[in-house]
Design a protein that fits this description.
- It is a single chain.
- This protein has 252 residues and is α/β, with parallel strands linked by helices.
- The protein has one domain: Rossmann fold, CATH 3.40.50.
- 41% of the residues lie in helices and 15% in strands.
- The protein contains eleven helices and eight strands.
- Strands 3-4-2-5-1-6-7-8 form an eight-stranded mixed sheet, sandwiched between helices.
- The structure holds adenosine-5'-triphosphate and magnesium ion.
Length: 252
Amino acid sequence: MARTLVISNRKGGSGKSSTSVNMAAELAALGQQVLLVDLDTQGHCAVGLGFKPQRDTPTVHGFLAGRHGLRCAVVESIWPGLHLIPADPLFEHGGVGASELLLRDALVTESLVDDYDTIILDTPPSLDGLLINALCAADRVLVPFVPHYLSGEGVRQLARLLFRVASRGLNERLKVLGFLPVMVDLRIGQHREVNSSLSHQFGAARLLPGIRTDIKVAEAFAVGKPVRAHAPQSRAAADYVQAVLALEKLWV
Ligand SMILES: Nc1ncnc2c1ncn2[C@@H]1O[C@H](COP(=O)(O)OP(=O)(O)OP(=O)(O)O)[C@@H](O)[C@H]1O
Ligand SMILES: [Mg+2]
C-alpha cells in the first residue's frame, strides 16, 4: 500500500515543484516505485522530467473533470521506477467536480496505491478544489519554504487549511511530516531566524535539513532532468539525498 505525500505551501515560488521532482527522483533511485502527480496546471513536474504532454495526453485534470480515468494518465519517465501523471495547462482552476475525494477514491479504486511505494502530489499555491483533493488523498504533508519573513504567512494559511480538512472529517490520516527550507543560506541571519521560529512552533524534529541555494536546481529543470542526474556532484544533489533520508526517518 503506497504512502502518499502532498507537497504544499500557499505561497508561490516556495520550492514545491523542485521538491516534488527531486524527492521523487531520489526515492526512485533508492529502489522505490514512485508516482508523481502534478496537480498544478503550470505543469512544472512534466518540465522537470523532460516530458512533453500533447494536446490529447490524459492528465490528472482530465480525470478530475470526468473526461477519463486516472490510471490511463500514468506515463513512465526515463528514470527507472519513476512514473508521472502530468497536468493539463489548459484546465480552468474552478473546474473540479464537487467532490473533494475524487483523487483519493481513484487512487484506491484504480489500484494505484497497490502499484507504488510512494505517491507524491505537487500542488498549486491557490486554494481550490485541486489543493483540497490533494490534501484529502494524502497521509502526510511536506511544506517547502524559503526562509524569508513572508513565508511564515504561507505556512500559517496552510495550517488553517489543514485544520479545516481535519475538522470537516475529510481526511483524518493527514499529518504534517515536516518543513523543508529551500534556497537556504545559513550565513544569512534572517534564514537562521525563520528556521528557528519554525522549530519553536512545530518542534525541531519537524525541520528537515535544507536545500541550499544552487543554480543547478533551476538548470536541471531547464534541461528536463532531476538534479541528481543533471549535476550529481552539486550541493543541491547532496542536500536532496540528506532531505530524503530525513524524510524516511520522520515517516513512521
Ligand atoms: N535550491 C534552490 N536553489 C536555487 N533555485 C531554486 C532552488 N529551489 C528552487 N529554485 C528555483 O526557485 C523557483 C521556484 O521554485 P519552484 O518552481 O519549485 O516553486 P513552486 O513552489 O513550485 O512555485 P509555484 O508556487 O509557482 O508552483 C524556480 O525557478 C526554481 O528553479
Ligand atoms: Mg510549482
